[in-house]
């Protein structure tokens, strides 16, 4: 069985830019391309397979009809989604619901717990992560009074940082940030504030203040992330998060290395370098910007080269 390489999809965003072309040489549709949906089976962006017997088929089709590729995992939806985000300008201040709230209020959609790996950023880059309200009542009052500077927590960021963003967390990427995002397979975002900016037609984007208030965790809770690392002469594997939603790792390789694969499936994105993937005596070239899935039918694989990758699985 072969790995599944995917054709990425691109989304224009008011805050997007050209970094996806500049950094990854993707063929982006415009100078306001904000999102690369690199590995996705969501109805709003369903990637197709680019190699092997499943060429041209969508990931959702394989999930629904070839469940053995994914370890026969239960569920109506492929559980994860990988994006690369180019924040050429500030994203809206937003929050995501959990599974229960989304299921009731968003027609059966999953909730959205996510995480960010900072691929690159400006020297003075920051992000909004959390809020200062001590109670739901204070949260409502500060929003109604437009006290955004008092309400929102800002943190400095740098290349290589990792942030775990549970549902209920108020957050926003800010200008000058390139991020790989691993998330639940959901497209539900509640905007609480958007800097009063307008689109090219002079319209403000829709806000979802009441739903935002409903789902925001109050007071803000800082996730307790404990990283672990495996060092070998040929690779370095860092585990950023390992929970019921997903496990996310960064893998750096320094030549030839071998790995057993005991997961239902693994999502892989090459952030830098070049090399090759060897499965079942067949070699596949890997370059910056490649995105692929190692299915359950592959028990082991080899990597050769100097690569920086993000790997995730359930």
TrEMBL record:
GO terms for biological process: carbohydrate metabolic process. GO terms for molecular function: mannose-6-phosphate isomerase activity; zinc ion binding. InterPro entries: Carb_Metab_Reg_Kinase/Isom, Man6P_Isoase-1, Man6P_isomerase_Firm_short, MPI_cupin_dom, PMI_typeI_cat, RmlC-like_jellyroll, RmlC_Cupin_sf. Residues 5-117 form the Phosphomannose isomerase type I catalytic domain. The active site is at 191. Zn(2+) binds at residues 96, 114, 171. The keyword Isomerase applies. It holds the Pfam family PMI_typeI_cat. Belongs to the mannose-6-phosphate isomerase type 1 family. This is mannose-6-phosphate isomerase. It comes from Romboutsia lituseburensis DSM 797.
């Amino acid at each position: 069985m072969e790995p599944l390489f995917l054709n990425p999809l691109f989304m224009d965003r008011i805050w997007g830019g050209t970094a996806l072309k500049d950094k990854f040489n993707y063929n982006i549709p415009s100078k306001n391309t904000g999102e690369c949906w690199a590995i996705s089976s969501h109805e709003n962006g369903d990637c197709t397979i680019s190699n092997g017997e499943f060429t041209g088929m969508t990931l959702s089709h394989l999930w629904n009809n070839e469940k053995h590729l994914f370890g026969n995992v239960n569920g109506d939806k492929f559980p994860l989604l990988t994006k690369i985000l180019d924040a050429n300008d500030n994203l809206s201040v937003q929050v995501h619901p959990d599974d229960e709230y989304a299921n009731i209020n968003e027609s059966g959609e999953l909730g959205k717990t996510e995480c960010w790996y900072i691929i690159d950023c400006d020297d003075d880059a920051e992000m909004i992560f959390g809020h200062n309200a001590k109670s739901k009542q204070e949260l409502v009052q500060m929003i109604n009074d437009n006290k955004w500077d008092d309400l929102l927590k800002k943190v400095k960021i740098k290349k290589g940082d990792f942030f775990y963003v549970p549902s209920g967390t108020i957050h926003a990427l800010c200008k000058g940030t390139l991020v790989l995002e691993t998330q639940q397979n959901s497209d539900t975002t509640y905007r609480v504030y958007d800097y009063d900016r307008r689109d090219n037609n002079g319209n403000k984007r829709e806000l979802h203040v009441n739903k935002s208030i409903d789902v925001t965790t109050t007071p803000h809770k800082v996730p307790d992330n404990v990283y672990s690392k495996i060092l070998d002469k040929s690779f370095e594997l860092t585990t950023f998060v390992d929970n019921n939603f997903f496990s996310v790792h960064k893998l750096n390789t320094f030549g030839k290395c071998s790995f057993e694969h005991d997961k239902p499936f693994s999502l892989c994105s090459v952030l830098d370098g070049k090399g090759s993937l060897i499965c079942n005596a067949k070699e596949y070239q890997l370059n910056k910007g490649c995105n692929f899935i190692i299915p359950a039918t592959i028990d082991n694989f080899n990597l050769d080269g100097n690569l920086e990758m993000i790997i995730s699985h359930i």
